[in-house]
Every structure is written in structure tokens, then in C-alpha cells.
Write a structure and sequence with these properties.
The protein has 265 residues and is of the alpha/beta class. It folds into two domains: 9-60; 80-226, Alpha-Beta Plaits (2-Layer Sandwich), CATH 3.30.70.1230. Helices cover 49% and strands 13% of the residues. The protein is built from nine helices and seven strands; from the N terminus they run βαβααβαββαβααβαα. The chain has a five-stranded mixed β-sheet. It has a two-stranded parallel ribbon with strand order 1-2. β4 (124-127) and β5 (134-138) form a beta hairpin. The longest helix has 34 residues, at 29-62.
Length: 265
């Protein structure tokens, strides 16, 4: 605010209208520039703090608490310790669309059970979606960088088991995709829309009640399960289900790594 008036009432009126400072005439050019420079720096500082606060909120919303805290504290080397994460998406079918309340209740019950299961597995992070699919990502924390695909497949079995236990005819197709070559990882991890679509395509083209892996996910699983052969992870279904799934994958993976429609056998 630059004013020829210097009464208290005029100053208060100017400040009331969001002015940050005032200079009355006659004024010195150097003083005016100094006051402007001070206000510009103050505004830049306020904007920087606001951007930092927003960034912190975003990190805390989309990353596991431990990973978000490390980034906020300035620790970035952890993300160089791994090069992959695994994304799992399940597509639902078998809902009675002629009974919308019943279909909604079935979805809510199924999703609530999966949410409760995820709470017990700190390595898995739910990914929000605007449709009736359910997705999660594994491998964002360095603690589970070595077996993220194995962990993902273990819960993928749970997703199928929970659906099979319902009496509403709900069926799910599960797609699994592994992001390779993270290059430090953080930017692609925050925006994995294409990778989510890869997992979804694997599920859509697959068989109900089975887990379908892209070529990247299959290769990652083969690498990770070798050190675990002496201590196989606990699963909610038998190993026969996984072997059957692997046989389907071996027969129906296309050159690009996505899943072809299953052949009749």
C-alpha cells in the first residue's frame, strides 16, 4: 500500500484490505524497494511452507507410514535398494445386477473383509479406485523389497478364498503385474496408472477363481521363491491351485507379456 495519507485510520483501513505494509508520501525509492523486497521474500516463504505441507500430506496418504517418514526426514537411499514393486487387481463378476441393494451389500462385505486383511499385512498398501475392482501394491517399503511378489500372491489367494466363501455367487479374477526397472522408483511408483491397467488386463482376460500373472510378475515370482523353497510361505489355498495357475500362465502368456484368452482343455 502506497498512500499520501498517514493517519492511523487510513493505515488501519489499508491493512484491513489485506495490505502487508504501508509507505506514506513523500517516500524514498530505496525504502520503497526494500519494503517490497521484504514482502516478496515473506510471500515466497509462506508459499514454500504451503507446498511442503501439501507434499507431506500427499506422501502420508499414498505411501506406507514408514516410507513416508523416511522421505520426510530426507532419507532417499532406501528407494535405491529395490527395483520392483508388484500390483494386484481383482475384477469381480457374478453380482445380481437386478438387485442393486443386494449387489452393493455383497461388494461392501467383500471389500470390508479385504480391508481387514490388509490391515494385518503392513507390506501391502491399498490403491483407491473409482470402479468395482480392488487393487493393492506391494514393495514400497525396503523391508519387503525382496519378496514383494510372493507376498502379493499370498494375499491374492486370500482374495479368491474370501470370494469363494460367500453365498452370493461372487467370483473374482485376479491379475498380477510387476513394475521393473524402477530407477530409484519414487516418481513411477506415485503414478502407476499404466501398470494398474496391465494387472487389470491380465485379470479381465483370465479365468474366474484363478491368479493371472503378466510375464514380468511371473519372472519376479520365480526369482523370489527360490530362496524360500526351504520355508514356503503360508497360503490360504493349496499349492495345487498355484501350479494350475502357473500352467495356465505358461500356456497363455503372449509375447508382450499380457494374458491371452484361455483355451479350452
Amino acid at each position: 500500500m502506497i498512500s499520501a495519507k498517514n493517519s492511523s485510520d487510513d493505515v488501519i483501513k489499508g491493512l484491513k484490505y489485506k495490505c502487508n505494509d504501508y509507505v506514506t508520501k513523500p517516500f524514498e525509492k530505496s525504502e520503497l524497494l526494500a519494503r517490497i523486497n521484504t514482502q516478496v521474500k515473506l510471500r515466497q516463504m509462506v508459499n514454500h511452507q504451503a507446498r511442503h505441507r501439501m507434499a507431506v500430506e500427499v506422501l502420508q496418504r499414498i505411501l506406507p507410514p514408514a516410507s513416508a517418514k523416511r522421505i520426510i526426514d530426507g532419507v532417499y537411499d532406501d528407494f535405491e535398494n529395490y527395483r520392483e514393486v508388484t500390483i494386484v487387481t481383482c475384477v469381480l463378476e457374478g453380482l445380481d445386477l437386478n438387485d442393486p441393494p443386494g449387489a452393493t451389500a455383497s461388494l461392501n462385505k467383500y471389500f470390508n473383509e479385504l480391508d481387514n486383511g490388509l490391515k494385518e499385512r503392513k507390506a501391502l498398501l491399498k490403491m483407491e479406485s473409482c470402479d468395482d475392482s480392488y487393487s493393492f501394491i506391494c514393495g514400497l517399503s525396503p523391508e519387503n523389497a525382496a519378496d514383494h511378489t510372493v507376498e502379493s500372491l499370498d494375499f491374492a489367494r486370500t482374495m479368491i478364498g474370501v470370494a469363494a466363501a460367500t453365498d452370493t455367487g461372487l467370483r473374482v479374477r485376479v491379475g498380477v503385474h510387476t513394475i521393473k526397472g524402477m530407477l530409484g522408483g519414487l516418481i513411477r511408483t506415485l503414478c502407476p496408472s499404466e501398470e494398474v491397467e496391465e494387472a487389470r488386463h491380465a485379470a479381465v482376460r483370465g479365468v474366474p477363481g484363478c491368479i493371472h500373472l503378466t510375464q514380468e510378475a511371473r519372472e519376479s515370482y520365480e526369482r523370489q521363491k527360490a530362496p524360500l523353497c526351504d520355508k514356503p510361505p503360508l497360503t490360504s489355498v493349496t499349492d495345487e491351485r498355484l501350479r494350475v495357475t502357473e500352467d495356465i500362465e505358461q500356456a497363455d502368456i503372449s509375447v508382450e507379456g499380457s494374458i491371452k484368452p484361455p483355451r479350452a482343455v
